[in-house]
Amino acid sequence: MCMLKELVVKNRSYRRFHEEVRIERGTLRQLVELARLSSSGANLQSLKYLLSAEPEKNARIFTTLGWAGYLKDWDGPVERERPSAYIVMLFDSAIAKTCFWDHGIAAQSIMLGAVEQGLGGCMFGNVNRDELRRVLDLDERFEILMVLALGKPKEEVRLVPLPPDGDIRYYRDADGMHYVPKRSLEEIILG
Amino acid sequence: MCMLKELVVKNRSYRRFHEEVRIERGTLRQLVELARLSSSGANLQSLKYLLSAEPEKNARIFTTLGWAGYLKDWDGPVERERPSAYIVMLFDSAIAKTCFWDHGIAAQSIMLGAVEQGLGGCMFGNVNRDELRRVLDLDERFEILMVLALGKPKEEVRLVPLPPDGDIRYYRDADGMHYVPKRSLEEIILG
């Protein structure tokens, strides 16, 4: 499974970007197309999307995001290292009562597609939803599920085994290398 | 994005299989490895997995699944057209309070990996969880999130535009061809 596994491994949560590398709206549409073609619980397709590739709008979305909860001494990327684009994933309550696990499926399709294009990003559930709703002037029928931040990654992320104490918190070393402890296959497959 | 898009398009919900084509436990482990390497909310990694590639166990899992809700005149695949293997995805409540959207991310990684290997399958949320818990002799700390049924697909699935009345229910024609109406990109991208 080399091809896909390569994408899956490369598809890390990136939080620092070459912000000067712009992302075209057409690229965002290609990524949403991957989500559109992915499976949906009971085929209800209750997910909707809002795109931002404009610096001004990006800046307003940026202020609503909570960055890297485990990096207490880091408030998120500085100017010029921020995402070049965002895909805001919404749940359309006029279509269904639940989106099942469609949001995860769609997000993974989008992020793998981004990595295939030499991009990368981060999925945000830690969002100031009231503020983002104002920024996007969003109708009440839409629930903000997550924000996908995208850009040309400017940091390296390495997967490492869990430490003996089992701490799953990611961390950075003095050089800014980002490490993510992952549970072993033996730990997650039962029996 | 040809490579990934090809996998995404091929990755349909398949419900009839060449059951005689067995799936090795090692293949299931490779697929779970793709889920293990995928991103996890707050990196908590609360998902656990149970594998079945044995005909007897498969038969017991099969009886707990609700097949194709929209195909009222079809009770699911007949013998010899049933899945060759299952991956049962569990939430480990000893690790976290929620799995966020990890289940969708993991399921998409697994299914795309299966398609890359010439396999395919279906994600089940419609599961008799009490019965499956008995079948698997599952500890209370584990919540059954979904069942991934896998096999060598024996049916063709085509994506089609939504009909004028907007009905999203999938259907089959007289030849058993399975059709899945998908909303347009214009409908799901707002603004």
From TrEMBL, chains A, B:
The keyword Oxidoreductase applies. GO terms for molecular function: oxidoreductase activity. This is Nitroreductase. It holds the Pfam family Nitroreductase. It comes from Pelobacter propionicus (strain DSM 2379 / NBRC 103807 / OttBd1). Keywords: Oxidoreductase. InterPro entries: Nitroreductase (IPR029479), Nitroreductase-like (IPR000415), Put_nitroreductase_C_bac (IPR023312). Belongs to the nitroreductase family. Residues 12-59, 97-152 form the Nitroreductase domain.
